[in-house]
Amino acid sequence: MKRRGFLIVLSGPSSAGKSTLLDMVLKMDAELCYSVSATTRSPRAGEKHGVDYFFHTEEHFMKMAGEGALLEWANYCGNWYGTPRQYVMEAIAEGKTVITDVNIDGARQLRRTLPEGVFVFLMPPSLGELRKRIVARGADSEESMNMRLAAAAEEISAVVDYDYCILNDDLEKAARQLLAIIWAERCRVSRMEFPAVL
Fold first, then answer.
1. In whole angstroms, what is the distance from residue 51 CA to residue 166 CA?
2. Cα separations in angstroms, 50 against 43, 54, 80
3. Would you give the distance in Å from CA 11 to the centre of its chain?
4. pLDDT value at residue 165
5. Neighbours of 172 (CB within 10 A)
6. pLDDT in tens, 160-173
7. Model-level pTM?
8. What is the end-to-end Cα distance of the chain in Å, rounded?
9. Pairing label, strands 54-55, 70-76
10. Which of 46, 133, 148, 186 could cross-link with 14 by S-S, CB 3.0 to 4.6 Å?
């Protein structure tokens, strides 16, 4: 029995905990493949090109978008982010489960491009907690923090466009819930290719 690959799309406001959750889940599920996003933003301390993001100039990023090398792309708080097409499509063709984290605009594009994908929204416990997390991260200017908080309200209202919602008030619980979604989606009959003898 062969299983068709598929894409899991994780979205949520900045500092909802997407990266931390992904790190945990990727360690818990060896079959899960992470699709590294492309961006025009500058690397934060400790981030590596090709591991955390593919860091590009805006000119190169726009060239990629124009050539169809991105499945989706969107501007978020003054920087461009996008999902490289080749890796995702090749991994899905090989029957792999691919996971990526994108903003709500990117998720809307992916819903049109890959409607069979699974869309998961990571909800912060509250806007107050979100503010604390953004401040504690210490990676953004005051202006950038305010932009991210202003964007959060709009992003949270988009939860109705997703297949699943996980409240991130307990990281381990959130990781178990995301894994449960992934495992259940892998078991969908529509993703299976059965031998002709059945």
1. 25
2. 11, 5, 16
3. 5
4. 97
5. 9
6. 999 999 999 999 99
7. 0.85
8. 10
9. unpaired
10. 148
Helix (H, G, I), strand (E, B) or coil at 84: strand
Q: DSSP H helical segments within the chain, as ranges?
A: 18-28, 58-66, 85-93, 104-113, 127-137, 142-157, 171-186
Determine the Cα–Cα distance for residues 147 and 151; give it in Å rounded to an integer: 6
Given a cut of 70, whether residue 66 has pLDDT beyond it is yes
Contact of 40 with 61, CB cutoff 8 Å = yes
Contact 168, 21 (CB under 8 A): yes
Query: Which two three-digit tokens encode residue 174?
Result: 């959130």
Distance CA(76)–CA(53), nearest Å, equals: 15
The pLDDT, as a whole number, for residue 59 is 96
Q: What is the mean pLDDT of residues 140-144?
A: 71
109 CB-near residues (< 8 Å, 6+ apart): 71, 72, 73, 74
Q: Which tens digits make up the pLDDT trace of 15-57?
A: 788 989 999 999 999 999 999 999 999 998 889 988 889 999 9
All structural domains of the chain: 2-193 (3.40.50.300)
Both tokens of residue 186?
């892998």
Please list, in sequence order, all residues whose beta carbon lies within 8 angstroms of the beta carbon of residue 68, skipping any fewer than 6 positions away: 85
Structure tokens at 136: 């504690």
Q: Other C-beta atoms within 10 Å of 66: how many?
A: 9
